[in-house]
Amino acid sequence: MDPVYRGFDQDNLDREYTPSSCVDSLAPFIAAYRDRSAQARAALQWRAIAYGPGEPETVDFFPATVPNAPLHVFIHGGYWRQLSKRESSFAAPGFIAAGAAFAAVDYALAPSVNLDEIVRQVRSAIAHLYRNAAALGIDPTRIHLSGSSAGGHLTGIVMATDWTADFGLPQTLVRAGTPISGLMDLEPVRLCVVNGWMGMTPDTVARLSPQHHLPHPGTRVIAAVGDIETAEFKRQTAEYATACRAAGLDCVDLIVPGRNHFDIVFDIADPATALGRLVFDQMGLR
What we know:
By secondary structure, the chain is of the alpha/beta class.
């Protein structure tokens, strides 16, 4: 077969962007997301907050136990077509215990909407949380994002939002972000099996690739990927981190030993892990 991208033929490129190829089964990880998130909702105070008129346009918000707390917002993955906020609250207990608030964002899924609409919804969610910071008991100057895979892409592109032009808000709205195993350059994604449900064009790639739209000056970034991942996911993380540092941003990149594409997210609220310690330090948590 002829090369499609960076020397990969179609079969190999599709395999590189199929992260489940590195694990025996995806099912245990999805079950863990669901079960741990259900346990978090059972153990903690939380409420659903609408940020827009559509049914998926809500966040599950877990208030902090102290006033004027930092906020950690998690954006789920699932290749923009799977999962929801219901599987995304597993990190809430760790952040609440450390004195932060936590929010899990829901958004409409492909192919019912395109990537532009998904990005618009997530940006609207963050703007809504900022505007309602006082009522939610959070410090609007300490909003931090993280997201995995497609959520890593959304974390990156949200950090590059023109908040002033689009929302009338400060450009420094997001102080820090942690894209995990992120799809930061959409060109190979456009060329692989994923585009069967995403329908991305070259223009989509140009407008919505975080690799080409870096965070605002002063934003702190942690770019993380699991050691048990494909070469392309590792390359995407490394090249994004390199671009961030070249732009003068405070950016740490991390390959997490023993973690794969699906279980690396469990580290973000655990300060006993290397990734969790970096996130807590970034947020000023102990």
